[in-house]
Design a protein that fits this description.
With about 170 residues, the chain is an alpha/beta fold. It contains six helices and five strands; from the N terminus they run E-H-E-E-H-E-H-H-H-H-E. It has a five-stranded mixed beta sheet, sandwiched between helices.
């Protein structure tokens, strides 16, 4: 079944061995960027160097519109024949935002709240980075619906590191 997998950095290699994803998206601070792991073609690995902050003045490399444009373009290049693995440091904020953005793009407008609720049900720890979601909301022309939907699910359970999350690409989210 086609799916998006979300993990912390510590679970990337295990997840690649277990699920054999064709594509990998890494969202880490620039100083912590990883090389492409075995099992992933370098052309299928998007590396986004950005800090996990909620305001542009809080870090040297905050999320920006260019990051989101690259993320959306990469998500659209994935054919979903094999899983897409998305990770950040803890698997809580940047990676869950990226998964949410790709799902919103795939499923189209007016399903933002349904997708956010599905994400919360599968990932009680998820706290999608609001700045990434805000940029995606603008890029996808969602008129605030993505940001409002993420706000509606709240911060989630506080954890040091998230679990491996499977998000199937099915109409029944």
């Amino acid at each position: 079944m086609p799916m998006i997998l979300v993990t912390p950095l510590s679970q990337v290699e295990t997840t690649i061995r277990r699920h054999k994803p064709s594509h990998l998206m890494t969202l880490l601070s620039p100083g912590h960027m990883i090389e492409t792991p075995a099992g992933i073609r370098p052309a299928n690995h998007l590396k986004l160097g950005l800090n996990d902050v909620v305001a542009t003045d809080l870090a040297d490399d905050p999320p920006n519109a260019k990051h989101v444009d690259e993320l959306i373009r990469f998500g659209r290049s994935w054919d979903a024949a094999s899983p897409l693995l998305i990770h950040c440091w803890a698997g809580v904020s940047r990676s869950t935002a990226a998964a949410y953005i790709i799902l919103c793009d795939r499923f189209g407008p007016f399903r933002e709240k349904e997708i956010a609720k599905s994400l919360r049900a599968r990932a009680p720890h998820a706290y999608p980075n609001p700045l990434l979601v805000e940029y995606a909301d603008k890029a996808l022309g969602r008129n605030g619906r993505m940001s409002m939907a993420v706000d509606s699910i709240g911060r989630g359970t506080i954890v040091a590191e998230g679990e491996i999350v499977e998000l199937p690409l099915s109409d029944e989210l």
